[in-house]
Amino acid sequence: MRLLSAFTKISKKAYLVAVITFFMRAGHFMSLPFLAIYLARQGLLSPSQIGMVLGISGLIFSLTSLINGLYIDRSSHKNIIIGALLLSSICYFGFAFSMQLFYGLLLLNAALGWFRSLIDVSSMKILVTHSKSEHLSYAYSARFIGANLGVVLGPLIGAVMATHQSLLIFYLAGAFNIVLAIVMLFYSEPPRGLEETKPKFNLRENFSTVIKDKTLVNITIINLIIWIVYSQIDTTLPQYLAYEWNNPAVIFSVLMATNALICVIFQPFVLRWAELTSPKISGILGSLMFSTSFILIGAHPTTITMIAAVIIMTLGELFTLPINGLLIMRVAPKHLIASYNGFTNLGMLGLSIGPVLGGYGLQLIGGREVFLLSALLPIIAGWLYFKGVSVEKEINNEL
């Protein structure tokens, strides 16, 4: 009851961020994973080309996040979000007209990655700006729950439309973004007078502060490894299912819904447990869970073992990614929140590297072998948690 009552103290703006995140994730997971299935089953692109199309979004997302964060720290995050949402909707609409155009899909998803970066970093700026320090973990939990509810809804809608080979899915994803842009018109930024106490913006000094923070750098490297592994579920697994299974869209939607429901139910409890014990232990356990899940998929790929693997992987996700994100928000100076989150997003290069490695892996060595090799990477992340990250002091000082 104490945990539930804490969520009632979260600001309305934090809930707005959760809603934005929900619809953004729903639009993403109803469209892009099923883009892989559609392209593979129609034989429009090779596995490596599909991997490149899906991976380019994460590449641009990561490479632009730091400069986006530095820009957002000195600009109107409201106007940035509105503009990025409207431009994202155009990208989704463009997918429906570009199914046979490899370079067209590549360009559209690259642009979508940039706009997603602007929206993501701006949303985190809103979250921290309007949350008290003692409520920050619960505000972050609300955003994470919103993200995973979107992952529940998105694949379910996508599965229905993918069964009918319907391209309407991309129009619906674009419509989500337009509605969110309209909602953001009613959002009010803090009065300018409240921002006058911030340190004067200095691009070179702020950049230097960001890249010299050892905690930030170490967590970003760990995130890179985890996202490379996690991306195999979003991009390589749909292709593997498309080639090897009779109903890939249905199976994939079940796996994604399982992932999201576990996140929604257990995330607040895992986050609180990690805060009260040790974020380092949490990260090591999560890394081992990632490895175990991919060994299951590669060694014995049945429906039951895949569901079990996704359950274990989801727990691994909860023991790593949310803890890392909360840590960064706690150690970041208030006037550099967007910049710190932008730098952390460099770890999401894994969402670009992973699909490309997975696509080539499917062609060269086969699906099961790709997942078995992927199981080795989280072990490296676990070692980095053990040897290279000292997080107890930063988090415990905030409790």
Structural topology:
Blueprint: H1 2-7, H2 12-42, H3 47-72, H4 77-95, H5 102-129, H6 136-163, H7 168-184, H8 203-211, H9 214-244, H10 248-276, H11 279-299, H12 303-318, H13 321-331, H14 337-344, H15 350-364, H16 367-374, H17 377-388, H18 392-396
Helix pairs in contact: 2-3, 2-5, 2-6, 2-7, 2-9, 3-5, 3-14, 3-15, 4-5, 4-7, 5-14, 6-10, 6-13, 9-10, 9-13, 9-15, 9-17, 10-12, 11-12, 11-16, 11-17
Characterize the structure shown:
This protein has helices at 2-7, 12-42, 47-72, 77-95, 102-129, 136-163, 168-184, 203-211, 214-244, 248-276, 279-299, 303-318, 321-331, 337-344, 350-364, 367-374, 377-388, 392-396. With 399 residues, the protein is mainly alpha-helical. The protein has a single domain, classed as MFS general substrate transporter like domains (Growth Hormone, Chain: A), CATH 1.20.1250.20. The chain is globular, with a radius of gyration of 20 Å.
Write down the CATH topology. Answer: Growth Hormone, Chain: A
User: How many strands appear in the DSSP assignment?
Assistant: 0
Let me know the average pLDDT: 78
Which CATH architecture is right?
Up-down Bundle
User: Strand share of the residues?
Assistant: under 5%
Q: Work out the helicity level.
A: over 70%
Question: According to CATH, what is the class?
Answer: Mainly Alpha
Shape: globular
Series of secondary-structure elements, N-terminal to C-terminal = HHHHHHHHHHHHHHHHHH
Oligomer: single chain
Q: If you compute it from the alpha carbons, what radius of gyration comes out, rounded to the nearest whole angstrom?
A: 20 Å
Under CATH, the homologous superfamily reads MFS general substrate transporter like domains
Number of helices: 18
Low-pLDDT runs: 391-399
Largest sheet: none
Number of domains: 1
- CA(first)-CA(last) distance: 19 Å
Structural class: mainly alpha
